[in-house]
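Escalated from tier 1: zinc ion holo job.
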Amino acid sequence: MDASVRKIVEEAAASMSYERPSRDEAEAAVGVLLRWIGEDPTREGLIDTPRRVVKAYEEIFGGYGQEPADILTRTFDEVAGYDEMVLVRDIDFISHCEHHMVPIIGKAHVAYQPDGRVLGLSKIARVVDIYARRLQTQEAMTEQVAAVIDAALTPKGVAVMIEAEHMCMSMRGIRTKGSSTVTSSFFGSFKNDRSEQARFLSMLK
Ligand SMILES: Nc1nc2c(ncn2[C@@H]2O[C@H](COP(=O)(O)OP(=O)(O)OP(=O)(O)O)[C@@H](O)[C@H]2O)c(=O)[nH]1
Ligand SMILES: [Zn+2]
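Tier 2 regenerated the structure:
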């Protein structure tokens, strides 16, 4: 290990209270990675790259600064007694896998069965977006989306299915192209009643 890299790693280990590094430190870390891949971070095209990467990370990983439960505090109960399933299908997202920090590209399908109250539809997509903009495993993300809706709305049931392609499997490693991973999470009526679960799955076809 390069002495300067070792110093950075040791300093990171020493500050294991997980204190947030400064922006300058984050930019310096990008510079180290550029040198690691064999680049010259001082050449013209790369001079601003550490700054850009840190700025991009703020956006790509902006989900750490947001609390999904806060998005779901506003509910509506004037729905004329509607108590059937509400399904928001095909919510596009791009997340990043926590093992390799490369993209997970997919769609989330989120359904719930109201118990008197409903959510603003956009809030469901916002919740998916917040969890996506954190480092993830697909399983954890699926469970998190379902759990936060269940806790915030206390509906009769929640069902979440996510289908996604993991770039860590396509652009590196095993290099499978086009495989998709499907995960699902069921709460309440969708967990206890197989016919409700089947109805959710059939509505996704
Ligand atoms: N369960 C699960 N695994 C994931 C997810 N994203 C990536 N992985 C897997 O995480 C595993 C990490 O395995 P390791 O053996 O530690 O890492 P690796 O040497 O890079 O593995 P390979 O990808 O097989 O080269 C790999 O099998 C990835 O496919 C995810 O969302 N869920
Ligand atoms: Zn990965």
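The longest strand covers residues 86-97.
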